[in-house]
Amino acid sequence: MTVADSTQPAIVLVSPQMGENIGAAARAMMNCGLKDLRLVNPRDGWPNERATANAVGALEKMPPVQVFGSTKDAIADCQRVYATTARPRDMVKSVYTAKSAADDIHARAAQNEKSAVLFGGERSGLDNDDVALAHGIVTVPLNPDFTSLNLAQGVLLLAYEWFQAQDETAAIQTHAPEDILASGEELNGMLGRLEEELEARHFFRTEGHKPTMKRNIRAMLMRAEFTDQEVRTMHGMISALIGKKDSE
Amino acid sequence: MTVADSTQPAIVLVSPQMGENIGAAARAMMNCGLKDLRLVNPRDGWPNERATANAVGALEKMPPVQVFGSTKDAIADCQRVYATTARPRDMVKSVYTAKSAADDIHARAAQNEKSAVLFGGERSGLDNDDVALAHGIVTVPLNPDFTSLNLAQGVLLLAYEWFQAQDETAAIQTHAPEDILASGEELNGMLGRLEEELEARHFFRTEGHKPTMKRNIRAMLMRAEFTDQEVRTMHGMISALIGKKDSE
Whole-prediction pTM value? Predict the structure, then answer.
């Protein structure tokens, strides 16, 4: 990369050990649209076959991974640095969650500030000298009884929060866009027919209970929010149940 | 587990292939406090040594994993079922994000409804018959150019959102709780001394600029929110810079 893309953070793996984990981290980054991967002193050198295999294509989709001899060099072009740690350090720094760090990264990117997020090696995480380089600490809130997070899982959670912060997917999509909800006419036609057929077969035992029973049936079936195709399917089922062949 | 704990969802891995991935999924679950892991027809049987190794202790911390011969059996005690899929299916079901599914699971748990979340095998995900068993679909919003998510990563994101939804960690903790912020008196004592020493050394070249320069220095240093120890360190640095030995 000639000029760092300040719209997204660099993910800096400091002294990573297993190529598998570097590859899995690259895959997690690409899942979330992050492409600026930097390595500081990877134990087994670079490139690494096991990383390539575990990245399942992610490394080919990003600019070449940059390798540095020190953490300082790796973050030289970054205005803002976050250190990920599972345990508190004896340093006075702001401690962010993955989500608040992601929000902060976006806010700073909007001001053209490039961020870097440091992740330590598998064995012991970042050392204190690396943490001292950071403006803030990121500790993902997790089950306090079991905080040991795999390297790639840690990268995934940070990258996921970064992606979430700018993603506009609706929380709940009730129907796939190509589906068309049934109109009130179609729906009421089907419900009216159902009531008639039920009535003809003495389903509503007493006149007194009939209005409530009808209301309950309508509520129950309307809750399903049928498409027009599903209304046709309901008609077909009603026909089948009453022993009538229809065009369905 | 004799009686299902409805406060948390069952994670159901349907036809998982590699023990490593089952273990990594168990680890991700424990990271987020989830302990109800169920397997449907695991390819290599159960228990599985590679799963145990990759779980790094998580499997010992949860009740025994339950193994079933069919997805239907695995969810028999669950009132609410979610199917995770990366691609849309030709079925009319609500599509949730990981976050909205997690919120829904909590809301239903509050009504004593037990949820299950289905995850398909590594090769091809859930088949349509499994998806048909679900009340809703979960599709994690990801980079549309690279949605291929490893099994354990998928479990992690769902579990993480479930944990987040009930976690109360402050978004940003400015100081570790054991640190004590400097009092106004300590802070102003140090800032006043700094100003005096600067003034004595003709730092403020013109009287006209002095008020603004003082304000800027105060703003800059107050932003750091020093602890009392740090104020002492500042005093020590000032002393050192002016060539004076003090008790620090």
Answer: 0.81
